[in-house]
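Ticket 4471: requesting a sanity check on a complex prediction with zinc ion. Repro inputs:
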Amino acid sequence: MRHRNGATDATPPPRPSSPGPWAVAALCAGAVGLIAVIDLVLQARRWPVPVVAVLDEPAHLATAALLLAALLPRRARGLVPWALAGAVLIDLDHVPLYLWDAVAAGVPGRPVTHSLCTVLVLAAVGLLAPRRVRTAFSGLALGVALHLVRDLATGPGAPLWWPAGPASVTVPHPAYLTVMALTAVLAVGRHLRTRRVA
Ligand SMILES: [Zn+2]
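Returned structure tokens:
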């Protein structure tokens, strides 16, 4: 059947237009800028825990989104919502420490669940789980790994190798910001290449 605009039932629906390169560049630069500003504010003084949480989670989302945009293979796009969720939800493991801290001050470091062990457990469940939940667990594993990228460079670091090594691992904050800036450049370059191919 031919419609008034000339399309027929056999005409494929129009592809949603992808954002232009300047829009993507602005988004990526904005994400890096957001992370830098949030970290400046966080380092300016000692904030109450709820304020830290409100500031820290958008920076985690920006970190995860940049790394996914730059590095995640297109065929794995189904992982994105789960990875973004995992990049934030892992911080729920702080809640028991905060409750404990309310009665016993001075609990050092981040919880041991902030480690590659959690990533491996989630990834293993993702491999072994029924097909319908495989994507969810694989995405959550990826999200926790992306979360650790930021946590290694902020506060007390993270017990990355727990239980093999309980010590917190840290990386210099400027190195993290540099990696994020390079990741943003990669993401923009990837977008440009994808548009050229399409
Ligand atoms: Zn964390």
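Notes from triage: The pocket of zinc ion is lined by residues 90-91, 110, 114, 147, 151 (CB under 6 Å). Leaving this open until the requester confirms.
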